[in-house]
Design a protein that fits this description.
Elements: H1 8-14, H2 20-27, H3 38-41, H4 48-55, H5 60-67, H6 74-77, H7 86-94, H8 111-118, H9 123-131, H10 137-141, H11 149-155, H12 164-171, H13 176-186, H14 191-197, H15 204-210, H16 215-224, H17 228-233, H18 239-245, H19 251-258, H20 265-270, H21 286-290, H22 295-302, H23 307-314, H24 321-328, H25 333-342, H26 348-358, H27 362-368, H28 378-382, H29 388-394, H30 402-408, H31 414-421, H32 428-435, H33 441-445, H34 452-462
Helix pairs in contact: 2-4, 5-7, 7-9, 11-13, 12-13, 22-23, 23-25, 25-26, 26-27, 29-31
Length: 466
């Protein structure tokens, strides 16, 4: 049995053809105290009757799972705002945490619901809301005058959305944490604020990285070798101090210098960063991330000889066609992987290369889920390929016939058998046969061609009450 595949019941719970009466029967399942399979809670387009059953389910874990669903509509999840269990409300406040596809952002809860969660009597609910990645900018901006200091700090996540008087008020806030956060937002344009922040150990690394530095401060921290990698990233650092950090003994400091935006390519290449192969290196570069839609920024990064800059550029969905073609020919596999994940027009050959190299991984899944991943002609190309990861692709071909799908359901590669088991072209007798096999039961259960009576029989066998 293959560990990452589960039972036929899990497949049925995910089956897009599952009739509403059977779905409601499954949602009422106790599951030995675990509740129904989570696939039933993470289905897109749940009917109102199903949402009502989930919201009223006696097991808090079921309601928590639904609160975390990226498939549910925000208004559906919002029905948990009055849940009696604070853990459920905290999960709702935090939002979906199984949304793995960055191409499909989570829609935030309605502002009034967020306001009610922010007024929740349980501190954990309020704290989870303010840390959520899924809040609308307008809601965050509305917190600038909130009585809770944590809420005012959260407003500073969108400083550009705040009015000038709100930003000024937060700089004079009675709460020291709010004042620090506001000062860190403003320090790139204020040397006085930066100097004050450098006296605060909690703020020092970020102030060194972003703040408008006085030369005396920069020289002092350079001489003391305090947070040199942060200092090396500071956009206001004088050129002669940049040169000194470029020969720092620490590879991470030299790497930070090599990523500075003002360097020429010749100067960048002259920095010794050969101590490491950049495997696992952080490829999120501040100035590229800040200019993720800026064509000039993207051009400078994408045409650089520095692989970390090209990787940072490849994260942008806004690359123009010439830069996309340039990066699609890159020899750095991480550049190609970022293109497969982030760009809507990534060429087929790049998607196929990422899939071929990383089959079975998250990145390969992202590549096959890309709208430009090929489908037509895959059966002719790969049905007889010596590697199983390619034979799986034959199932994706819309022209593959039932005979081929049945043949692939007997394939020696388990993932190919699982893909064939889930395909609606699989002849019914074979579908029923693979439904009884542990390694293909989940895929067969999810097959939309599975008759309703067989779905009901799976539920009967799993002990789901009628």
């Amino acid at each position: 049995m293959v560990g990452f595949h589960s039972s036929a019941l899990d497949g049925v719970a995910a089956n897009p053809a599952l009739p509403t009466p059977l779905l409601l029967r499954l949602l009422a399942f106790d599951g030995g105290g675990e509740g129904p399979p989570f696939q039933a809670l993470y289905r897109p387009g749940l009917p109102d009757a199903a949402v009502a059953a989930i919201v009223a389910h006696p097991l808090a874990g079921v309601r928590i799972d639904f609160a975390r669903s990226a498939q549910a509509e925000p208004g559906q999840r919002a029905r948990l705002v009055d849940d009696p269990d604070p853990e459920v409300r905290a999960a709702l406040a935090w939002g979906p945490d199984r949304n793995h596809d960055p191409r499909r952002p989570v829609r935030p809860l309605p502002d009034p619901v967020c306001g009610r969660l922010l007024a929740d009597p349980e501190p954990a609910v309020r704290e989870r809301l303010l840390r959520s990645r899924h809040l609308a900018p307008r809601f965050l901006a509305s917190l600038a005058r909130h009585p809770d200091p944590a809420a005012r700090r959260a407003a500073l996540r969108v400083p550009e959305a705040l009015a000038a008087d709100e930003r000024a008020g937060l700089l004079d806030d009675p709460d020291p944490g709010v004042r620090r956060a506001a000062a860190l937002c403003a320090c790139p344009g204020d040397a006085r604020l930066t100097s004050a922040l450098l006296r605060d150990p909690a703020a020092r690394p970020e102030a060194l990285r972003r703040g408008l530095l006085r030369r005396a401060d920069a020289e002092r921290f350079l001489a003391e070798d305090v947070h040199p990698a942060d200092l090396a990233r500071n956009p206001f650092l004088p050129a002669d101090l940049v040169d000194r950090l470029a020969v720092h003994p620490d590879e991470s400091v030299r790497r930070a210098v090599s990523l500075r935006p003002e360097l020429t390519e010749a100067r960048r290449a002259a920095i010794d960063r050969t101590a490491g192969p950049l495997v696992g290196a952080d490829d999120d570069v501040d100035w590229v991330a800040a200019g993720i839609a800026d064509q000039e920024v993207l051009r400078r990064a994408a045409t650089s000889s520095h692989p970390l800059l090209r990787r940072a550029a490849a994260r942008s969905p806004h690359l123009p066609s010439d830069l996309l073609r340039l990066l699609a020919a890159d020899e750095d596999v991480i550049v190609l992987t970022h293109l497969a994940v982030h760009h809507p027009d990534t060429p087929e050959r790049v998607l196929m290369r990422v899939y071929a190299r990383l089959g079975g991984t998250f990145s390969a899944w992202m590549a096959t889920g890309h709208p430009r991943f090929p489908r037509e002609g895959l059966a002719a190309r790969f049905a007889d390929h010596p590697e199983g990861r390619y034979r799986q692709l034959a199932v994706r071909d819309p022209e593959a016939g039932p005979g081929l799908i049945e043949r692939l359901s007997h394939d020696p590669d388990v993932r190919t058998r699982q893909a064939a088991a889930a395909d609606p072209r699989l002849p019914l007798p074979r579908l029923l046969a693979v439904l009884a096999l542990p390694e293909t039961a989940c895929g067969a259960g999810a097959n939309p061609a599975l008759p309703e009576r067989e779905m009901a029989r799976v539920m009967d066998g799993a002990g789901v009450p009628r």
